Amino acid sequence: MANVKRENSNPTAGVEDLLAALKEEISFNESYDEENEEWVLDVSIDGQRRQDITLSPFTEAGRDYIRLITVVGKTSDFSLQKLRSALELNSSLLYGALAIYQGATVLTETIAVKRTDKSEAIDIVRYLTRMADSYEKMLFGLDRA
Which positions ≥6 away from 62 have C-beta within 8 Å? Predict the structure, then answer.
């Protein structure tokens, strides 16, 4: 899908607004990847474990979005049965979906910048990082973030 930009579009502003809201609710360290134009948040899960989540702004069909991606593990580390079991969990997820992205099994969600309430976006980030961390712990017994 090609990105279509509108004149007043600024998907980066949506990420900056979301980061400001997240800082009030969630403990994380952030970094900005200039080459890929995305933010990586190192989120604290219950003070003991950590999970990275990437926020990538983009514009599609004249609307600004943020794609959220958090890694569960390398796809090559999953047996076919584990990968199938993980994918069967898709129908039970409240937010997001399991997918394969750049050789990793991830939880991903796309949110519309103008249509998503900030408290819902915070809930989505919390949910994705906790679920990815839970799957990572269950499948590998490790904290890889």
Answer: 4, 5, 6, 9
Going from the C-alpha of 125 to that of each of 3, 46, 133, the distances in angstroms are 24, 14, 12
How many angstroms separate the Cα of 18 from the Cα of each of 4, 51, 94? 22, 18, 20
Q: Could you read off the pLDDT of 20-45 as tens digits, one per residue?
A: 999 999 999 999 999 989 999 999 98
- pTM here? 0.85
Q: What is the pLDDT of residues 72-86, one digit of tens each?
A: 988 888 888 887 887
- The angle that helices 11-25 and 118-140 make with each other, rounded to 10 degrees, is 70
Q: Which residues pair with 54 in a beta bridge?
A: 40, 69
> Does residue 4 lie in a domain region?
no
Report the domain count for the chain.
1
Cα 124 to Cα 94, 128, 141, distances in angstroms? 9, 6, 24
